[in-house]
Amino acid sequence: MKQIATDIVIVGAGLAGLYTALNIDPKYRVDIVVKESITNANSSLAQGGIAGELDFIQENLDEHIEDTLKAGSYLNNKDAVTVLVTEASANIKRLMSYKVAFDRDSDGNILLTKEGGHSSRRILHSGGDATGKDIMEALKTECLTRKNLFFHEGTMAIELIHDKKTCYGVSCLDESDETLHFLAQDTVLATGGIGNIYGSTTNSTVATADAIGMAYRAGVNIEKMEFIQFHPTAFHNEISLHRQKFLISEAVRGEGAYLVNSEGDRFMHKYSPLLELAPRDTVSQAIYREMYDTWTDHVYLDTRHLDQEYLKNRFPTIYNHLRAEGITMGKDLISVSPVQHFNVGGITADLFGKTNMENLYANGECASNGVHGANRLASNSLLECIVFGNRIAQDINNQIFEKKIYESNIKQYNSYKYNYKPMKKKLGMLMDEYVGIVRSEEGLLFAKNELIKMLSNLKKYPNNSKHYYEALNMVQTATLIVESALARKESIGCHYRIN
Ligand SMILES: Cc1cc2nc3c(=O)[nH]c(=O)nc-3n(C[C@H](O)[C@H](O)[C@H](O)COP(=O)(O)OP(=O)(O)OC[C@H]3O[C@@H](n4cnc5c(N)ncnc54)[C@H](O)[C@@H]3O)c2cc1C
After folding, report:
1. Which of 146, 168, 432, 478 has a C-alpha 20 to 30 A away from that of 89?
2. Distance between Cα 404 and ligand 1 center (Å)
3. What is the pLDDT of residues 178-229, one digit of tens each?
4. What is the CA radius of gyration of the chain?
């Protein structure tokens, strides 16, 4: 077993991990562990953009706050939302200082778009629909200039090193499944989403709920797990067996695309006065209903009334992806269906990203700091990563560092070959069927019983391998989702109960 003593260890190198790392005082050593490569993250997939009011016009800030609260059905923490909105400008400008080139018009003015639930155009984008990729590339380049940052790609965190109240670092498996302990003054969890728990998701393959699983096993508080956001418009490909589905950004509807059902009729007027730009829960639930009523598994996004050249330039990633599928934006209907997209709840964190365990922080999609309430407003999550990443870094920078020596008491199991794929597949089917957009008590109880069996099997045969820990984290987190969904009997936000 190898051991590295450091000041701060960050688990994950998406936007939440990288931005936190960049804002930590360079006098501290920061080790960043990354399960695969830096670019394989949900952050790199973000298309639509990043929300934020750049000018301090109180009326505009209030409107962004109100839109966020409304999308979250007012279950948000208003203080967290105020922080998110008021600190957006400074942090987005810092992204620009890291050479993120947001799209501008010919006079140099930043171009802004609109997505579901936003009352005005306040979303910045880059490369048309390549916002996440461009931000991640700029931040990665900036990180590589910093001498205090040490990256460990191909290294998966598996357990927190902790006693009853304090975290001392994290235990990992390196590229050859050898154990590697990082002992640190502070640990930041930033492992992103949970998408692969479901059979269909927009998430990257690395989104397997690892931080939530680890934190849960260490006794750290987890909350609001019933709130899973389903994106209304993932590309529906009849023959694809991939769990990861290609996203057709909400910004396409922001630029005027309609939704039509399998009979060619527009339907959003039946569900919301905001039509196609209603919040995501409303649109996903409306599509679910239309699919049910028309006996099909998809609806269509209609861009045929929009200018083909404009669409090609505004959405180059989406345009090219669809071309490869034989579909031309502006000419053909695009088949879409809702799939798992975003984990609204997560590890309970305060306004400085602190969890209830000392020296342990959580940021990004794995954290729940109260900004999203019962549902996330589109394009607020990239913003969350940077605003709270900066706050975590400032909190760490203000600490007095004392070197703590701690011998890890993490149990080390034998490692053996075992194929966890069938279990993951079964889990995906179970979650899609019983813990999806529409939930019932009977379905949730059935899922719970199945999950209990899976979990007991996993616990009976522990295995010191990455595949084992991924399966364990996924099943454990799925159980948390089901338990929270059972406990919340009313329909609110993206949690919809029929009984
Ligand atoms: C297709 C798509 C489009 C989106 N579009 C937008 C958008 O336009 N605007 C917006 O605001 N939001 C958007 N989102 C949501 C947003 O991208 C994410 O919520 C956000 O990027 C999450 O950032 P993160 O750093 O928390 O996680 P990620 O970017 O997913 O990074 C997680 C990191 O943790 C690492 N990791 C995971 N487990 C471990 C482990 N056990 N050990 C070590 N490392 C680990 C991963 O390798 C990765 O580096 C979109 C999401 C998707 C999937």
Report:
1. 146
2. 31
3. 999 999 999 999 999 999 999 999 999 999 999 999 999 999 999 999 999 9
4. 22
Mutation pick for ligand 1 pocket among 382, 390, 470, 477 (CB with most ligand atoms within 8 Å): 382
Quick one: the chain helix, strand, coil %, rounded to 5? 40, 20, 45
Q: What is the pLDDT of residue 409?
A: 72
| Residue 240: per-residue pLDDT | 79
pLDDT tens digits, 444-477: 999 999 999 999 999 999 999 999 999 999 999 9
Q: Is 319 left (phi over 0), alpha (psi -120 to 50) or beta?
A: alpha
Interval 378-409: pLDDT, tens: 999 999 999 999 999 999 999 988 766 677 77
12 lines ligand 1 (CB under 6 A): yes
- Whether 231 and 284 have beta carbons less than 8 Å apart is answered as yes
Tokens read off for 431: 């979650």
Which residue's alpha carbon is at the smallest distance from atom 50 of ligand 1?
46
Known catalytic residues are 280
Pick from 37, 42, 469 the residue to mutate for probing ligand 1's pocket: most ligand atoms within 8 Å of its CB.
Answer: 42
SS3 label, residue 75: coil
Mapped onto helix, strand or coil, the DSSP state of residue 467 is helix
Each domain of the chain, given as residue ranges in start order, spans 1-225+344-418, 228-341
* pLDDT higher at 406 or 314: 314
**Which option is the CATH number for 228-341: 3.30.565.10, 3.40.605.10, 3.40.50.720, 3.90.700.10?**
3.90.700.10
Question: Residue 236 has which token pair?
Answer: 């529906």
Fold category of 1-225+344-418 in CATH: FAD/NAD(P)-binding domain (3.50.50)
Do the domains at 1-225+344-418 and 228-341 have one common CATH topology?
Answer: no
Residue 123 and residue 377 in contact, taking contact as beta carbons nearer than 8 Å: no
Task: Give yes or no for residue 68 CB within 6 A of ligand 1.
Answer: no
> Do 291 and 337 touch, CB atoms closer than 8 A?
yes
277, two tokens? 């730009």
